[in-house]
UniProtKB/TrEMBL annotation:
Belongs to the HARBI1 family. Its main location: nucleus. GO terms for cellular component: nucleus. It is found in: Nucleus. This is ALP1 protein. PANTHER family: PROTEIN ALP1-LIKE-RELATED, PTHR22930. Residues 5-86 form the DDE Tnp4 domain. Pfam families: DDE_Tnp_4 (PF13359). The keyword Zinc-finger does not apply. Its cofactor is a divalent metal cation. The keyword Nuclease applies. InterPro entries: HARBI1-like, HARBI1_dom.
Length: 141
């Protein structure tokens, strides 16, 4: 799009729009087709992330019961599982679908109420608009 962008996190409507948190446009009847497509693509990306975490937790089920390790060890444990998981995925190590049986998709913690408009960053709308244009230029998918 002609402008370098930094990485962003995906959030839902309850998060404040920041230049580092991408959130969907507020759903109403005034959304343009482009904005609807942006929301759809964001939702699809979110589902990919949820599936990745589901596979990670299924492959390394120690992550389901991290309450039996010390808090100091927890970041190292999670990082080790992520690295080993990526190595397995990169080398096409078979994923046993039966592992999913003990792993339920969990709703990630998020704010209960939408963030106040005062927390929104006006510059962040430019980032969202650039992404919206990019998604439009990519076509369907």
């Amino acid at each position: 799009m002609g402008r370098a962008q930094k990485y962003v996190l995906l959030g839902d409507a309850t998060y404040p729009l920041q230049d580092w948190i991408l959130k969907p446009y507020q759903e109403d009847e005034n959304l343009t087709q482009r904005q609807l497509q942006f929301n759809y693509r964001l939702k699809r990306a979110h589902s990919v992330i949820e599936n990745a975490f589901l596979r990670l937790k299924a492959r390394w089920q120690i992550l389901l019961k991290c309450d039996d390790c010390s808090l100091e060890l927890l970041p190292t444990l999670v990082l080790a599982c992520c690295i080993l998981h990526n190595v397995c995925e990169a080398h096409d190590n078979p994923f046993n679908e039966e592992w999913l049986e003990g792993t339920e998709p969990t709703e990630l913690p998020k704010p209960c109420q939408p963030a106040p408009a005062a927390m929104e960053d006006g510059r962040a709308e430019q980032v969202r608009e650039l992404m919206c244009q990019y998604f439009e230029s990519c076509g369907e998918g």
